[in-house]
Write a structure and sequence with these properties.
about 270 residues; single chain; NADP; Cbr1-like_FAD-bd_dom; Elongation Factor Tu (Ef-tu), domain 3; ferredoxin-NADP+ reductase activity; globular; alpha/beta; binds flavin-adenine dinucleotide
Length: about 270
Amino acid sequence: MNAPVSLKVNPDLQTVTQVTHWTDRLFSFRVTRPQSLRFRSGEFVMIGLAGDNGKPILRAYSIASPAWDEELEFYSIKVPDGPLTSRLQHIEVGQPIILRPKPVGTLVHDALKPGKRLWFLATGTGFAPFASLLREPETWEKYDSVVMMHTCREAGELEYGRQLVADLRDDPVIGELIGDKLQYYPTTTREQGPFMGRITDNLTSGKVFADLGLEGPLDPVRDRAMVCGSLAFNKDVAAVLEGFGLEEGSNSAPADYVIEKAFVGDGV
Ligand code: FAD
């Protein structure tokens, strides 16, 4: 006889182990990791919750933790009337979430040709795949330097990334590998602060090179880039990178830069 539906164990259920609210629009959380899940730092999976009708509400989420971490971390927006995040933002430690263990994505080291300097370019929750890649030893073994540019409207929205970067140097696994290789360049577009402006403008004007004392401009022999933001941001950054002679790569044809959407739509 078949077991009643409610008694069937869902193999894709994981348990929330930690939740941190960063602003009224942003939070991060950690969940248990299925033992069988293998992924490359920078990839995304489908996660979700059961809807009122019992059907799962699933959305794509970058895994923000590195491949070696025994748990999985996610960094999330809160869309007030969003089918998933209107509920997900209320999750608490000990509660279950659904995780489909099929990681995919293009923001992976395998999709880039070897280079000397790697640029991580993100807006908003587009920081998530870089939260994984910044903690990935391969990043520091493969490149002489890494520049993390992250742009949000307000300073509070940079806090998850700011704290993660600050903690990196004390990390037992990669602190030593990083040395002085990391340059971090957070900017705001709306709130006044020490560093401001859009990533595209700061790259084309040369401001980021001047502020960080870096050799510029971008050069396809030396520079590689990974890009994650809104559709409009990704399109604008791609045009800038192509203007400097960099070519888009993929898992099957590695090249100079790779792109992934941080979400679909215009953003909230
Ligand atoms: P939805 O119906 O999915 O979205 C409603 C509207 O909210 C969208 O039309 C869009 O305008 C806006 N929106 C959705 N997500 C965002 C966002 N992240 N930032 C700003 N505006 C947004 N979201 C994350 O929070 N973290 C991630 O790591 C993440 N990774 C993604 C990776 C990929 C490849 C893709 C395609 C999307 C990713 N998303 C991520 C977006 C995510 O899949 C959902 O859209 C988001 O969780 C909102 O779900 P929802 O059901 O509440 O609202």
